[in-house]
Design a protein that fits this description.
Pfam families: THF_DHG_CYH (PF00763), THF_DHG_CYH_C (PF02882). InterPro entries: Aminoacid_DH-like_N_sf, NAD(P)-bd_dom_sf, THF_DH/CycHdrlase, THF_DH/CycHdrlase_cat_dom, THF_DH/CycHdrlase_CS, THF_DH/CycHdrlase_NAD-bd_dom. The protein is α/β, with parallel strands linked by helices. It has two domains: 87 residues, Rossmann fold, CATH 3.40.50.10860; 124 residues, NAD(P)-binding Rossmann-like Domain (Rossmann fold). The chain contains ten helices and eleven strands. Strand 5, helix 7 and strand 6 form a beta-alpha-beta unit. The radius of gyration is 19 Å and the shape is globular. The structure holds guanine.
Amino acid sequence: MAIIMNGRQLADQLQDKLATEVNNWRAKGLRLPTLAVILVGDDPASHVYVKNKEKAVAKIGFHSIVKRLPKETTEAELLEQVQTYNLDQAIDGILVQLPLPEHIDEEKVLLAIDAKKDVDGFHPLNMGKLFIGKPDKIACTPYGIITLLKAYDIKIEGKQVVVVGRSNIVGKPMAQLMLMEHGTVTLTHSRTKNLQELTQTADILVVAIGRGELITADYVKPGAIVIDVGMNRNESGKLVGDVDFASVEPVASFITPVPGGVGPMTITMLMEQTMANGRLAHLEGE
Ligand code: GUN
């Protein structure tokens, strides 16, 4: 029987703290931060994610602007929109929702965002800073996972950490953050030959491979800590993670549920990094 890690509850607590801070700023007449979100096209999942971000900003009490652009938007038009937000002093954070339509070069767009306003942590400069061990803005999902582990007093130092999935958004920055916490890290992916053998060595197993319920109990060492980043729909339309919760929960010591585990923490880190820019602006005597 595992302890189920309640990301929803921790996210609510952290967001309540941010809301108190925003209230203090408002009482002092300080400018409240603004998060600008750009959403191109009509991917239904992306629209849901953006709505959730808007809701979180509203709950905490600062501002968001959501620019919804049609799927025919050209790369040049998108770059121009990014540049407008880069130059707007009232905007503290910029997020371009991914994936972008195929005709737009994602790397070019991420590179165009002012790295200081890159609250997603996807800009190559921020990725580079993270990988030399001097992080500034950090990709929100792995940042949220580290925050969740710390809240449950889970030590990473000296542990065998296995990350499944090597995306720029989760797997790679996750491996680096675990390394910075002195874990011994193995980064696995879809072409890994002996995946099961490797996952069985994990004291901490993070799964972000995008395959519904891939990780069953026979992939997990008894007593392991299992973090599930997956969000998939199974044949009956139910939201499931990359981990088969029913079979893994009895063998793990800690496990994150889907939903209510990692997801709420991701949004909270986005809020935190936007607020951090607001704090910085106040310190700079705005
Ligand atoms: N698409 C899926 N997850 C994310 C995220 O965290 N940030 C952005 N910008 N796009 C995403």
